[in-house]
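Quick one before lunch.
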Amino acid sequence: MKLLVVEDEPTLRAQLGAALREAGYAVDEAADGRDAWHLGSTEAYDAVVLDLGLPLLDGLSVLQRWRAAGRAMPVLILTARDGWHEKVAGIDAGADDYLSKPFHTPELLARLRALIRRAQGLASPRLRCGPLELDTRSGEVTVAGRPVSLTAHEYRLLAYLMHRPGQVVSRGELTEHLYAQDFDRDSNTIEVFVARLRRKLPAELIETVRGRGYRLQARA
Ligand code: CA
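Model of the calcium ion complex:
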């Protein structure tokens, strides 16, 4: 899962970036509206945290431009305390949720988890596929109730697949959603991570669909 954090206040941006990376996401950061608009128009994000008061291009305009261009990723806006009119304008511009500053990081994380799962039509924060279970709140992965220890990249890849059970996901799509923008990407490393996951999980859960990608599926 990859997120974009748009916030012009450097300390808050760094704190948010660190908290989201700690929670297992790949994170890109933007400090102004123009950079945000560019990143959100060219990179594949699973969700965006968008401050509204931004230099160069305000957050509301950024959001309107994304939506006008058909960019449909979930967007959570950060608004001023008591800025109810900002919330109305933001939601009408295509925001999916909002938080008023100051906010507690656990609330932001919970709202982002909900946005990401709802974008895939999933209701529960606990994702299941056969004997495999992933709790998006704690990051805990179990097989038949037994904990499985995964690296950050393995977890990110598995979480992406578990949000899309039964769907074929290409290596290119995985590459786009697993790495931050400045990361040196190599789609061959996806094969390496899949091979490692297959050693840690029941091997048949991640199926290779020839020429198309991977599919997470529990055999009935
Ligand atoms: Ca601001």
